[in-house]
Amino acid sequence: MEADYWIAIATQQKGDNAAAIPLLQAFIAANEKHPLTPLATYALGGAQVAAGQKPEGIATLALLAEKFPASQPAPYTYFMRAQLFAADQKVDEINALMRQFIEKYPQDDKVFFAYDSIAQNAINFAKPDEAVTNYSEFVEKYPESPKASDAMVKISALQRGVAERLATNYSSLDAAAQTQWKTAIQESVATVESLLAKYPESPNLAAGLQSLLASQEMLLRAELKDPAAVEAYLGELAGKAPSPASKSKVLFTQAAFISRSEKPRALAKMNEAFNAEVVYAPSDLDIYGLALVDDKKIDEATAVFEKLTKDYPNPTGSPLNQAPREIQEAQAIALFGRGRIAQEKKLTAEAGKLFQQLKALYPWSPKVLEADYGISEALRSEGKFDEAQSLLGMIIRAPTATADLRANSFLLLGEIQQDRMKAATDPKEAAKFRDAAIDSFLKIAQFYAGVPQAASEGLSKGAQLLEAQIAESTDPKFKAAQTKKARDAYQQLIKDYPTSPYTAKAQERLTALGTP
Predict the structure, then answer these.
(1) Under 8 Å between Cβ of 211 and 205
(2) Is 26 within 8 Å of 4 (Cβ atoms)?
(3) At what angle do helices 452-472 and 403-423 cross, to 10 degrees?
(4) 8 Å CB contact between 230 and 218
(5) Using one digit for the tens of pLDDT, what is the confidence trace for 66-95?
(6) In CATH, which superfamily holds the domain spanning 402-516?
(7) How far apart are CA 265 and CA 278, in angstroms?
(8) How far apart are CA 78 and CA 94, in angstroms?
């Protein structure tokens, strides 16, 4: 009897599904109550599907779930049939199957995936409220599940998405839409606050706090909060955190916010809050590690990026670029961090290789643009100015590039043009490159005034090149025009960036230029 089953299974495993089908059917017909019959029925359904008999295969799998609901393969039939319906875009059938699964197997460890499938179908059909309802039902019914915190992160993102879809400009909305916008943000924030209170040790808390920070930034753009209020709110939230680890994560979120305008103060807060045993969001460790690099704390930065690699390891035996998205994001950040450290150590060639590896493995990563910037620095050091400038131009034009990255790209572009000016043997060529360098340096404060380090350095370097033009020219009108430009640049630097390391020199040069 059992030999017939194993012959049928061996036939199927050899890939001969057509021959396995009658063998399995015969075994099932002759052994309706045999312990192997549910497995034989499951194998039959799979063989029928593989042999191109999809309707028959679906019917066989449905029969298995009906006749042998307590058997080991029965729960799997729901997901197998759902995949087959998904191929035909039969969403209603998928949702019905998942609801049946939830009802029949409420304690199965795959119940979250059933809820998630229904919610994702709702999202795909632009029904976020239905998705929120499904995830909320799961959290309510399964508060002890490790997936409950995951569901709450998804709920928060969906709630915030309602506001994002209403408008990017809050002030353009009418009163009713503004109320809806604010309600959506408040609900998203409340969900993360509840996540912090209920699941402070969850690994999903870091992702939830990223959602919370995104909501706070939206309130800032809507001018419903100012930076001081956001910082104070995050500080108060840290004070309410139920555990030292969760408090550390909230403080890191606060420091990430502060880093947008005050990097030294943000670094001090991160140093104070950092706990090597806590698993932080990859984006938080990205900010922290790079801040340590900028502060010349290379050993500490190396430890941070090594920690990130260990906290989000690639699954054993899995290709690097096929790991779960969060792991790939973490690994991309860590790889970029190693490249930045190599740059800081003046290991330009090694840095270039690491950045190229990042681009090859994770071409979708936002860090690719930063890697291109690092490659541009390497190309500059090799004297490959045209290639470096081409890459920088792509970064500046990229819609996803941050203001910091664009500002620093303009700064590097100006420095490359300055290199070309110094290397030029033709005076006209040298003058052309100097004009281009001045233009690049001064554009930073014009377009990216909110990036103080790059903007103030650009004003200083641009003004100094203007002074060089003044010294070389014999044309009174030209000298007067360039003197005014240099004076304006120094005055802007002193006024807008009083704490810049370039301010004292700017004041000295402004005095030397005299009054108009």
Answers:
(1) no
(2) yes
(3) 30
(4) no
(5) 999 999 999 999 999 998 898 888 999 999
(6) Tetratricopeptide repeat domain (1.25.40.10)
(7) 21
(8) 9
Tokens read off for 343: 């740059």
Measured CA to CA, the distance from residue 15 to residue 47 in angstroms comes to: 9
Task: Evaluate whether 284 touches 252 at the Cβ level (below 8 Å).
Answer: yes
Question: Is the CATH number of domain 281-397 1.25.40.10?
Answer: yes
Which residues in the chain are classed under CATH 1.25.40.10? 281-397, 402-516
Task: Classify residue 273 by burial, with Cβ atoms within 10 Å: 0-12, 13-18, 19+.
Answer: buried
Nearest to 462 by CA among 480, 446, 475: 446
The pTM for the full model equals: 0.71
Quote the CA–CA distance of 161 and 345 in Å, as a whole number.
42
What is the rounded CA–CA span in Å between residue 149 and residue 373?
37
For residue 52, count other CB atoms closer than 10 A to its CB. Answer: 10
Q: 259: exposed, middle or buried (C-beta count within 10 Å: 0-12, 13-18, 19+)?
A: buried
Per-residue pLDDT at 514: 77
pLDDT tens digit string along 437-450?
999 999 999 998 87
497's tokens:
């960036």
Report the half-sphere exposure of 136 (CA within 13 A, side-chain side): 15
